[in-house]
Amino acid sequence: MVNALAPETTERVHSPRATGSTVDGRRRTRPRRRQAVVAYLFLAPTLLFFAVFLVLPLGFALLLSMSRWAGFDLGEIDPVGLDNFTDLFVDGSTFLTPILTNTLLFALGTVALALTGSVLVANCIDKLRFQGLWRTLYFLPIVTTVVAIGNVWKYMYEPGGLVNGVLNALGLGSVAFLQDPDTALPSVVVVQAWASVGTAILILTAGLKSIPESYYEAAALDGAGPITVFWKITLPLLRPSLLFVCITQFLTGLQSFALIIVMTKGGPGDATNVAALEMYRQAFSYGDWGTASAAAFVLFVVVLVVTLVQLWIFRRKGEDT
Amino acid sequence: MTPSHRTGALSRRHFALTLPSALLTSGASGCAAPYQGTGRPGDPIVLTLLSHYASGTLKEALQRPVDEWNATHDRVRVRTKAVEFTDLLTTFMVRQAAGQGADILHPYCLWNGQLVQAGVLRPAPSEHAEEIRRGYGGAAVGASSVGGTIYGYPTEVQTYALYYNKRLLREAGVERPPRTWHELEEAAYRTARRDRYGNTLVQGFGLSTYDDSTTVGQTLALLNAAGGTFVSADGRSTAIDSPAGRAVLDLEHRLVVKGASAPGVNVYKAFQSGQVAMVVSAGWWTGSLKAEMGKDYRDVGVAPLPVPEAGDKRATLSTGFMLGVNTASEHPREAWEFLRWLNTEKVSAKSANRGATTTRMSSLQVSVGSLTGRAEDMRTLLGEGSDPNLRPFLDALAYAVPEPNVPGAQQAKSLLRKNIEALWTGQQSVDESLRTIRRQVDQEVSRSW
Q1: Residues of CATH 1.10.3720.10 domain(s) within chain A?
Q2: How distant, in Å, are the alpha carbons of A82, A224, B13, B27 from that of A290?
Q3: Number of domains, chain B
Q4: Which of B269-273, B346-350, B404-408 comes out lowest in average pLDDT?
Q5: Could A56 and B199 be called an inter-chain contact, meaning their C-beta atoms sit closer than 8 Å?
């Protein structure tokens, strides 16, 4: 593609306008047009792919967000303006509280747990032998399906399950982890964080490797302890990796619903219901595609704002993606 | 700019504008019509039937009469397509939107309002509607109707009754299954047991947040037994905040608070392993229990749903499926004719006495441990020697109340479930639950789509 356009650059230097010759200009415009056509032909498959799988669905979702549609007949799309958006935030609607709140808490909790856990584990791994083995072990949850993870943890959380068994063995009473509305969301957050910690560890260990050894040597000469080294050297120099992990984990958390549908189906009540699950239900169970699409755009705005805020915070600290 | 240039510019702009719509149109037109055979004169018409009878005995049970039809009818052939129940409504939507809707649909009756409103279901022609009214019980006819119009032949009908563990009741000194709510509560408290850590060993009365069937189904069955309904007669509002509704939620709340019920436990598993003394569920469960409990199944008994006071009129919930014809079908007459043949024509029943006849659908449903709304057929097929636990479900066909199927019924059911769960887990009081259900469900069922 670059080679095909390269002669154009040369042509511009000897532009026909510079000589004032219109005939020459026409002669040279023709090959340029041909090159442009060739370029567009090469681009066409990609453009078509984006048009069909990105622009078209996006446009359709935007249309649906301002319409009522039951999902059956394309001829029955009924425009309603911004009604779907206002319905989401009308008094008594559960979308803002608890659904959107749960979504943010879920994402925030996952990021906080996964980030803290992965920084600690990555640091430990960095000091161990057989680092590849440890990284692989921590990466294993990533290659396991969410359904399997969700079901295993669900059984572990059950009243007669492993976690309660351990609590009972310690002389403590049982906890209804997924049945109690106060513990259900934190319980699912723990699983999501556990499942995503492997990727974070992989990125952070790579980040740790890129920190020059000379900093640590200098710190050792100055007599800095391990905690000071971690706070003053490791953590600040790990910031690009942390930013990446933070943003990707937050985005995953905000859009997550598979784990929740497996473990709690959003319950009890709406205690673990999140925006993506609600959208799925509105569209595929209730046939209310308008509300589902409006909710999708609201979630998009939330994701955008959260990402921009994260970028802004890290940039203030002098870090660029 | 010369005219030729202008044309070129316009066509480019038009190309950009019309590309998405052209893709949509070509996609839609390319798959606009359901498969109707080759279309050559003399070739048979092929009707497609989309159901959730996707695997195992269900699939085989439906395929048998379909094969019989295809073997005896040259002009009209039927081809079955099946997806899992969880994907059924979505498949209806996607195929209908793509112009690939099946000729014959087998929806859960809860969706009927939604499907009728979306223009997917065709009303039954008068002669078929008359045949349905004459041949089926009121609950089955009601479930297959929307706004008084019948939209299909009822197939599988489920009624709710009380399952109980005879051994657990006996050990607790309860001699017979409860008949009233007072007896139910007493038996529940006497049979419930927990260990010192608070783990449930035996639930007296199984309340479960496992799925809609256990959470909402049992609540609605108790509501019907108390003389109440979930949705008002005109289908525009909820009627759950009636004295009957309050009584049901009070009863459930008491059972949870006093420790006789543990909503976190999966009641389907716990009952099988003797950890639940009583639970309200539908008739289909008997087949699963028999298969999975082995000789322990002898401990299982089924009784009619207890009523609030002795002498109260019996009532319970019924849910079901129906076979209807798609408005997009090009051969509705042939489709209705196939449904009439499958659902009303009597043939000799293999499992019944010599000379006894039932419809093919009745035989099909009983062969998979289910019932149809044809009480006469069910009595023929479930004669001497059949599982006595099926009898209360069969008797309930006479007094069961159909599950509401107004537009928005699926969402109303989900809202009810969320609020019931919130009540059971202490997030809401009975009053708050009733108020929230009223507000949320009213908003949903009354909105003009």
Answers
A1: 92-316
A2: 10, 60, 29, 22
A3: 2
A4: B346-350
A5: no
Q: Which two tokens stand for residue B101?
A: 């809707």
SS3 (DSSP) at A159? coil
Q: Are B227 and B244 within 8 A, CB to CB?
A: yes
CB contact, 8 Å: A281 with chain B?
yes
Q: Which residues pair with A124 in a beta bridge?
A: none
Q: Which residues of B touch A179 (CB under 8 A)?
A: 209, 263-264, 425
Q: Is B264 on the interface with A (CB under 8 A)?
A: yes
Burial label, B440 (beta-carbon count in 10 A; 0-12, 13-18, 19+): buried
Counting every residue, how long is chain B? 449
> CA-CA distance, B360 to B350, in Å (whole number)?
11
Helix (H) or strand (E) holding A239: helix A239-255
Q: Is A269 on the interface with B (CB under 8 A)?
A: yes
As a whole number, mean pLDDT of residues B328-346 equals 94
DSSP A161: S
Q: What is the CA radius of gyration of chain A?
A: 27
Q: Which residue from B56, B134, B66, B161 is spatially nearest to B106, judged by alpha carbons? A: B66
Cα separations in angstroms, B70 against A115, A260, A272, B46, B79: 62, 45, 49, 10, 9
Residue B204 belongs to a domain with what CATH number?
3.40.190.10
pLDDT band, residue B370 (cuts 50/70/90): confident
Q: What is the pLDDT of residues B403-446, one digit of tens each?
A: 999 888 888 999 999 999 999 988 899 999 999 999 989 888 87
Enumerate residues 145 to 164 of chain A having a beta carbon within 8 A of any beta carbon in chain B.
158-160, 164
| Residue of B50, B105, B120, B199 to mutate, testing the A interface (most A Cβ within 10 Å of its Cβ) | B199
Alpha carbon distance A147, A142 (integer Å): 12
Domain that holds residue B386: 45-158+318-396
Task: Say if A287 is an interface residue toward chain B (CB within 8 Å).
Answer: yes
Token pair, residue A294, equals 């409006």
pLDDT of residue B369: 80
Q: Please report residues of B whose CB lies closer than 8 A to that of A97.
A: none
Between these two residues, A141 and B169, which has the higher pLDDT value? B169
In CATH terms, the superfamily for domain A92-316 is MetI-like (1.10.3720.10)
For residue B198, give the nearest of A74, A173, A286 by CB distance: A173
3-state secondary structure of A125: helix
B82 and B144 share one domain? yes
Whether the bond into A98 is cis, omega within 30 of 0: yes
Look at residue B2 and tell me if it is in a domain.
Answer: no
Q: Chain B closest CA to A24's CA: distance in Å?
A: 20
> CB–CB of A286 and B20 under 8 A?
no
Mutation site, B93, B197, B439, B440, interface A, largest A CB count within 10 A: B197
Please report whether residue B274 resides in a domain.
Answer: yes
Same domain, B246 and B99: no
A-B contacts (CB, under 8 Å): 112
Residue of A nearest to B121 (CA): A72
